[in-house]
Amino acid sequence: MGIAENFESVKQRINAACERSGRRPDSVILVAVCKGHPPEAVREAFECGIRVFGENKIQEAKAKIPLCPSGISWHLIGHLQTNKARDAVRFFDMIHSVDSLKLAEELDKRAAQVQRKIPILIEVNVSGETTKFGYPPSLLIGEIKRLSEFQNLDLQGLMTMAPFVDDPELTRPVFRRLRELKNECEQILNRPLPHLSMGMTNDFEVAIEEGATMVRIGTAIFGERRVYKPDIPQQD
To answer: What's the topology of domain 3-222?
Structure first.
């Protein structure tokens, strides 16, 4: 199937998961993950009606974004090093992967320089896997107030990556725990955090049932990752 057919299938699956959990389909934002796919694939997905796209790497995004249609909301979903914060605030409309106070401080400084207020999500390593980035839950609770106080960052919620397993039902405790952490953070901050970014191609339906407001889907829309090697612009 092509991108249009894949997108329709994903929409139907999102709608069904929302129906099972008593939610409106428009309560879930689809972030189409285009890592490794060329601008032509992004354009095709855009023409199907997708408006939010996720990239994992700054350098690929810098080369790809200028070649894609305007009107796209670009989300950074991959690990971000502090030395890439300047580019992150220039190219992206939301950053899902803030995983330390040090990174938040650098993003805040860089956002101030370009006079932007950047929506962010805090990445949480709920599963405790050593191969994954993100806040340990206990440290998050201790630092969430400070993370919410940066003048040029807009803290909107939490993000996690569940372990990759054959049975998506096994990811449910991870997604449920992130939702519980969001509730705990809201009590500390005394304000709502609107977003939970969780769920990918192999487990997004379970994530929706557990409260995801953003699902990050690549393979189910674009197919297997292509070998896209953009001309990387020189650092300015």
So the answer is: TIM Barrel (3.20.20)
